[in-house]
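re: that chain from earlier
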Amino acid sequence: MEKPHTDYPVDTSPHRLAFLGAGSMNGAILRGILGSGVEPSRITATVRGTEKARDLAADTGVVALATSVDADANIDAAMGADIVFLGVKPVGIQELCREIAGALRPGTVVVSVAAAVTIDMIERSLAPGQPVVRSMPNTPLTVGRGAVGLSGGTHATDAQVDAVAALFAGSGLVRVVPEAQLDAVSAVSGSGPAYAFYLAEAMARAGEELGLEPTLARDLARATVAGAGRMLEEPGAEPSALRRAVTSPNGTTERAIATFDAEGVPDIIARAARAAADRAAEISRELAG
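^ sequence. v structure.
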């Protein structure tokens, strides 16, 4: 895996890690961390079923425990860990925290990857003084091209936040931000991969409507979106400069961009991101009761 740009050194510590739940997001983080060179022997993960546990262990080499047959699987995984990633759905985060609270050492860092669950909610569900880091990652972590926002809790030291950042650094861009900005991070990068996939879908449909064979239209759209993203990773790359470079005066691309502007695409994207951020805030209020 090619190492992405990051301001944090990639993790080289002997920390033991636990992933409680290994679904879409926590599974992406787990695979991204493994891809950066972390030894599987340092990691214990929990999943619901025995078949999924067997598949995860065979695929990644980590110790995988099934909660369906071992009611203490989450507790056992958390007990031996220095950093614990909570990967259940937002509605289950506080319950999971209460389940493992007694098993955590005072210095064990609890990392949430759930949207909308605030640091305060997590801290109130753990033992007093437990270090908490809230993260907002995205699924391109699995291919070393992720983006992660991190916020430290009341009791998390700078060193502990940096330790979590170092785990993400091998598979994505990491930025530490105030918690108040995490909903915006979620709206831009957390949900952002879906926006890019949505664009690729729309481009493929447009190609079909213009007469391209469906497979060709899909392949062209996929390669174009992926290639453009790779160009954006070049040092000093600016989206507006790259766009202007392929937009010849009075040419075909200029006509397409003019249509986007006339139809209000920039405003649509801004309103969509606002809707995502607003929904995250709504979920936070719902979870807080």
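The chain has two domains: 17-179, 192-276.
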